[in-house]
Protein 1
Amino acid sequence: MSIMLEPCRWTYVAGKLLPAERAVLPADCHPVHYGSAAFESLRIYRTAIGSRLVGLDGHLDRLEATMQQLRLMPVDRSVVRQALLDVIAANELEDGYIRLLAYPNGNCTRLDPAVQPSDLLIVAWRVNGARFSPPLTLGVADVRRPPAFTSLPLAKHSGMYGVYAALHSAARAEGFDDALVLHADGTVCEVTGANIFLARNGRLATPTIPDSIDGLTRRLVIELAADIGIATEERPLRLEDFAEADEIFITGTFHGLRPVSAINGMAPALPTPGPLTLALQKRYEQMLDSPGGNDGRWVTTISSAARNGNGNGHVPATFRVRPAQREDIPAVVEGVRLLLEELRGVPGIQLPAGAETVCARTIEGRTRGAIFVAAPNGPGSGLIGLLCLNVLESVHVGGAYGLIQDLWVRNEHRSDGVGAALVAAAENYCREHRLNSMEVCLPSHRFPRLPRTHNFYQSCGFIELGPRMRKEVS
Ligand SMILES: Cc1ncc(COP(=O)(O)O)c(C=O)c1O
């Protein structure tokens, strides 16, 4: 059994987010008849620092290359990227698998795709289960991969998967989990949805890829292996090389890094999963779970600000951030009250009588600090967010610093960049008042949105200091 997929509610078709049951293509459309869609799958993982997409730029590059080879009309990269973010946001997808197809949106009676506008189809599934799938068995397929010059070698397109689906089915009918496909010359090519590696004497080898999919996970794993001192040789490999292997694993967006327990019934020399496979899985997880570094090239953290336009009818607010005025005091006190209710998980909290007085003292400059509010532009009343900043002195800072005491954004505006704009206003205040740092105390570990809160401050440039986070103000 590999990972478990649960279909998501929202699917993107030709510029619209639709409930899955209404997301259909016309019966006469080009890709249904000719398999003429450029085909990518992407994986997003839930981590403590937010949800993280793997290989986004590589997927967009490969999609463009495939579209070119299929002679599809180009779609602007920013449109594809935003559509993906919309699907992730609409489905609140944290751990997921995404299929992205670019296809000629025209009638099959015209064969030429270059004269039909291209559109996108994006389907998402929630992934349940462990990060890595258990070992699988492979049977060698009796149909071979055509040489590069007889097909579109760089194209990852729907049409080729009809053959692979049949080979997969034949392997399963023989009792294997999947099929290993050979090149025309009998050397090993790939699995129906993955590239393949072997380990022998502490080194890795993987087939060269002129005729197979240039897998992003394959490239990533070669880099991760180098990071931990394991060399990879790319060369033609025969089935006999796999018969002598210590370990075998496959790599792909869907499978991740997955051990192979046998090919045609023949097991590798070491018990599965072997030590190199486990070391690489560990390095892979480390990449997912830690921010920055070289790994930043491979993972994109999905911040709430990137999720504008979440497809559920919500229009992102346009708003302005300004210092609070006396008239705002009741709304500020109410916002802080709602924040406390959310943090403590208890309804009906009342703030002490002195709350309004403290607001007034801060607004009138009788105490050091500031209150900033976010108010909607145009019609609409009330505040959509607020931030209370105090100025404190401490021995450990060696002077004064800004402490964010309260930051609240109205629920329905949480993906509109309001929080980031309020933090930017606080940072400006600190700069103007020669405060060299800002801190914020994190909510209790029991607060369900703690990972999001943490991720938000991290995306604003704060670093973690135990239960607090700090940002140096330059
Ligand atoms: C035939 C084939 N080979 C290899 C791969 C691995 O490519 P990637 O790691 O980019 O997902 C895939 C992935 O879909 C595939 O379908």
Protein 2
Amino acid sequence: MIKICQRCGKEYPPASNRQKYCADCRPAVTQEYNRQYYLRNSEEIIARVAQYKENNRDTYDAYQREYSKKYRAEHKDTIRQYKKQWLANNPDKERVYCERAKERYHKKRRLKKLEAKKLRLIAKMQANAAKRQTKQIRRKELYQGDSFWDNNLNAFAQRM
Ligand SMILES: [Zn+2]
């Protein structure tokens, strides 16, 4: 049996009775069907995706971060080219753009300095705690050691 494709009008041998389109038209028909489905249900689909994101915030954020990192690394030249082009097309915004870049740079540096300061403080506190502990242990040994009481009792006895 031969059928006529409802999309392109070509004759084709159908694989089943219900088939309406030839093999060449099938992918385009499916794509169009999916597009129509999305258009009919876009609100629900968008809401579902948003809900999914909300339920998996951490996983999603990590994925997003990883993805953009990879993308930036793989498209370094394209991004640089795009920025250059954008600046050429928006000469009036160049100043703002440069200032923002400067701000970002200084912010990063400030954060780095703060982080270093924090690490130094932590190291200092740890060193102090260790010193205090050593002192405490030494004092404990001093007061609990037999020699301490012996010496003091002897001294006390001599004074009597
Ligand atoms: Zn066809």
